[in-house]
Design brief:
mainly alpha, two-stranded antiparallel sheet
Length: 92
């Protein structure tokens, strides 16, 4: 918690030997995190097949880089296909 507070530059919790209480910044941070989690859950529940778009990858011509990009794209396509199959299976 101390590292998080240091990174944010503010105290999120007031701590004593008898209690721990959220500061105003801590409450605001907690509310914002809850909103973000809610948005992530909505995104995960969305029907991604409706939002499918082409992805363009531009990279320099390199015999070392190009095979890795192709491998990444192939892996991404397979994962997308698995995701669609899981969604179809969940709907039925």
């Amino acid at each position: 918690m101390a590292r998080l507070e240091a990174a944010l530059g503010t105290r999120l919790l007031e701590r004593t030997t008898r209690m721990v209480r959220a500061t105003d910044a801590g409450n605001a941070s907690c509310e914002r995190c809850a909103q973000i989690l809610s948005q992530l859950e909505e995104a995960n529940a969305a029907d991604w097949s409706v939002r499918a778009h082409d992805v363009r990858v531009v990279c320099p011509s390199s015999r070392h880089l190009s095979p890795r990009v192709r491998l990444f794209i192939d892996m991404l396509a397979k994962e997308f296909e698995r995701s669609l199959a899981r969604q179809k299976k969940a709907k039925s």
